[in-house]
């Protein structure tokens, strides 16, 4: 179908301008920007989730209460689809990014002041309100990446995001307990607010020259049309089904610390040091490989290869345990290093494919929904994995983990296949899927049909 057939000459010229722009690819500073943004999420999250349980425990709270507090802190992230509606309704994504970062800075500063007299309340303000700012920034960043980066660069941009998140998390985890132990909660939150402010200034500087690539799509859009984008866009359904199943079949991932305790005889402190010293470099290696290779060899091929490798590594360890082998420190290190490298590489590839399932104009709400369903699948898999571990032991659990990799493998092969006629330019994809309206007034609704809607005469398959 000719995507220009239902639009006026001004819109055609705008689309052609954007097509030329996208062929040049995204500038290097766009990759730097998303890496810094994800560092800006990883830093406060890891910081708070190290400091929060330690501080609440020192205040005499029981483990059940600490778990409830941590669960409350996850609410801003669980509700990301709601923030996606706001970001896509008023799609000035770089503005949302800076607003989210700034809100996190202010929330952490307020938490620092409150914690001087009420430590628990100050921490919760910083964690929940600061988490809200980070969650909004996350949704806007994902929407920005979907719109800004052409398809052939989405594997690399997800690797850049993961590198930033890993760097921020590493700094937050290592600095969090140290600063809290030396100076207490108020100065710890003050230091975190100041660090986030520095990142916000860097983000504002880098974002200033990166305009949104979809010309004419910056006006507010109705909530009904946003909701329709979640119902009638078939490729989006393929994306969230894939993400939920991938997360739900990862039954051993959340339990790995217990593997090192029970099978390698490590203490809790040794497990923490071991997972940090091995896991963080492994994630960096996996994402650096992804940054260089995924878009060259193709995201589907990279994802399929990574899933097969994960199945072989977990299944191999399961077989070894079944025959009575003891992994030892060296074996455990090789196993964890391999898993983390391959999972980081595969995650960048799969997330790039999932971005392809989203229409650029609705990237915020669609991708936020995909990720929220992935988190739900992860919560289910953690519970199922714990039940299976109690019933069967590690050898059967890891063997089953290898077998279950068939499910995400089939999803990638069957559901995330290239769509016939899907253009690589995000603005052209939007034009092909939502005809004819691009700019919609706040007071009215356009007659917009989603891809796959029979009334539009189009299909995204």
Can you characterise this structure?
With 461 residues, the protein is mainly alpha-helical. It has 2 domains: 200 residues, Growth Hormone, Chain: A (Up-down Bundle), CATH 1.20.1250.20; 185 residues, Up-down Bundle (Growth Hormone, Chain: A). The chain has 19 helices and no strands. Helix 5 runs antiparallel to helix 16 and helix 14 packs antiparallel against helix 15. The radius of gyration is 23 Å and the shape is globular. The protein starts with 8 loop residues before the first helix and ends in a 28-residue tail after the last helix.
Task: Give keywords.
461 residues; Growth Hormone, Chain: A; 2 domains; disordered C terminus; 0% strand; mainly alpha
Short description:
The chain is mainly alpha-helical and 461 residues long. Helix 5 (80-89) packs across helix 7, helix 8 packs antiparallel against helix 13 and helix 8 crosses helix 15. Helix content is 76%, strand content 0%.
Residues in helix, %:
over 70%
Number of helices: 19
Number of beta-strand segments: 0
General shape: globular
Level-1 CATH class name of the largest domain: Mainly Alpha
Largest sheet data: none
The CATH homologous superfamily of the largest domain is called MFS general substrate transporter like domains
CATH topology description of the largest domain? Growth Hormone, Chain: A
Distance between the termini: 13 Å
> What fraction of the residues are assigned to beta strands by DSSP?
under 5%
Average pLDDT confidence is 75
Name of the CATH architecture of the largest domain: Up-down Bundle
């Amino acid at each position: 179908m000719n995507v220009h057939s239902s639009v006026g000459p001004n819109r055609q010229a705008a689309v052609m301008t954007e097509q030329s722009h996208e062929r040049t690819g995204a500038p290097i500073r766009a990759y730097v920007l998303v890496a810094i943004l994800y560092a800006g999420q990883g830093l406060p999250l890891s910081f708070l989730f190290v400091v929060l349980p330690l501080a609440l425990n020192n205040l005499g709270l029981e483990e059940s209460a600490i778990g409830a507090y941590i669960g409350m802190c996850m609410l801003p992230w669980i509700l990301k689809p709601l923030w996606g509606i706001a970001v896509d309704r008023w799609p000035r994504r770089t503005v949302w990014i800076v607003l989210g970062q700034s809100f996190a800075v202010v929330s952490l500063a307020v938490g620092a002041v409150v914690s001087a007299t009420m430590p628990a309340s100050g921490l919760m303000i910083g964690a929940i309100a600061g988490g809200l700012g980070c969650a909004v920034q996350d949704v806007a960043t994902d929407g920005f990446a979907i719109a800004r980066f052409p398809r052939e660069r989405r594997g690399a941009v997800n690797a850049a995001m993961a590198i930033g998140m890993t760097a921020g998390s590493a700094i937050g985890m290592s600095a969090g307990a140290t600063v809290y132990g030396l100076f207490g909660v108020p100065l710890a939150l003050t230091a975190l607010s100041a660090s986030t402010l520095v990142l916000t200034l860097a983000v504002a500087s880098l974002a200033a020259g990166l305009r949104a690539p979809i010309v004419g799509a910056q006006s507010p859009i109705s909530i009904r049309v946003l909701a329709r984008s979640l119902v009638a866009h078939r490729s989006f359904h393929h994306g969230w089904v894939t993400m939920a199943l991938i997360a739900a079949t990862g039954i051993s991932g959340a339990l790995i610390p217990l593997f090192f305790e029970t099978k390698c005889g490590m203490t809790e402190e040794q497990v923490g040091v071991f997972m940090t010293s091995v896991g963080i470099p492994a994630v960096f290696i996996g994402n650096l490989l992804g940054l260089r290779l995924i878009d060259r060899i193709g995201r589907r091929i990279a994802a399929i290869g990574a899933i097969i490798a994960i199945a072989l590594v977990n299944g191999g360890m399961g077989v070894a345990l079944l025959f009575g082998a003891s992994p030892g420190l060296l074996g455990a290190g090789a196993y964890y290093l391999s898993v983390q490298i391959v999972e980081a590489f595969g995650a960048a590839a799969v997330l790039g494919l999932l971005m392809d399932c989203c229409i650029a104009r609705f990237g915020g709400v669609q991708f936020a929904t995909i990720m929220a369903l992935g988190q739900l699948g992860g919560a289910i898999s953690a519970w199922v994995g714990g039940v299976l571990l109690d019933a069967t032991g590690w050898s059967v659990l890891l063997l089953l983990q290898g077998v279950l990799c068939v499910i995400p493998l089939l999803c990638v092969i069957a559901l995330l296949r290239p769509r016939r006629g899907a253009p690589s330019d995000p603005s052209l994809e939007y034009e092909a899927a939502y005809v004819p309206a691009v700019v919609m007034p706040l007071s009215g609704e356009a007659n917009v049909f989603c891809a796959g809607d029979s009334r539009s005469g189009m299909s995204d398959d």
